[in-house]
Design a protein that fits this description.
about 240 residues, 3 domains, about 70% helix
Length: about 240
């Protein structure tokens, strides 16, 4: 039976980077062969972190702010972990964008690099964006209602799962609860869409008055009363088409 060398592990122990209990867990781990083949102490310490044998909090506690070999090893490991965490967070934010749960602007404001702790899931990332005021409560309420209605579409089940997890996390949040008590409103329609509807109204005046009335009323409804001038424009078109001789 071949005995694997423990010299590298002994160095981590000597530097105080692993406790006796952690050393025993590393020796007993099924992948200890891979650990023993790593050439540098920082790689070995990172291996122990990735396999859940050392926590991020324990790594932080090892830092003494002194220029010692121990500190250099810990700093190197923490930098690698930070890079991995940032990459992971970018993937989660991109996933939310692809699922239509955040907008392009919100993705730009997400700044995944700001979260130095690991966010495990897309739902947790959406909660973090809410807490950072990137995604408002009203958006999440609307997303939840939409996800329920679109659960049978492509990725609909995944979207619904995420927003339901977010809803469960935020149910006790006063701001979110206040918006939950209000009727969900559809997000505002683009000004470009509204202008197209306006031109259709005008054109339909020359063809069919009642059709123009219908399109005008539809435009007013889509605006939700949020754009005063355009609202008045659609109302004027609708009434003008109705009174057209």
């Amino acid at each position: 039976m071949t005995t694997l060398p423990t010299t590298s592990l002994d160095k981590l122990s000597t530097l105080g980077l692993v406790t006796g209990e952690q050393r025993g867990a590393i020796l007993a781990h099924p992948d200890y062969v891979a650990f023993a083949q790593l050439g540098q102490p920082d790689q070995q310490l990172l291996w122990a972190y990735r396999h859940g044998l050392i926590s991020h909090q324990e790594l932080d506690a090892m830092t003494t702010l002194e220029e010692t070999e121990r500190d250099r090893i810990v700093d190197t490991v923490n930098e690698q972990i930070a890079d991995e965490i940032c990459d992971h967070h970018r993937l989660l934010a991109d996933q939310l964008l692809m699922l239509g749960l955040i907008t392009d602007q919100q993705r730009e404001e997400a700044a995944p690099d700001n979260y130095m702790w690991r966010i495990d899931s897309a739902a947790d990332m959406l909660v973090a964006l809410y807490e950072d005021h990137v995604v408002p409560a009203q958006d999440i309420v609307v997303l939840r209602e939409r996800a329920k209605a679109e659960r049978h579409l492509i990725d609909g089940a995944r979207r619904l799962q995420i927003v339901e997890q977010v809803h469960g996390r935020l149910a006790a949040d006063p701001e979110y609860a206040r918006h939950m008590a209000r009727p969900a409103q559809a997000p505002p329609v683009s000004d470009h869409v509204l202008l197209v509807i306006g031109f259709l109204c005008y054109w339909m005046l020359l063809v069919e008055e009642w059709l123009a009335v219908g399109i005008g009323v539809l435009g007013v409804w889509m605006m939700g009363g949020h754009r005063g001038l355009l609202n008045l424009l659609f109302c004027a078109l609708a009434w003008y088409s109705f009174l057209w001789p």
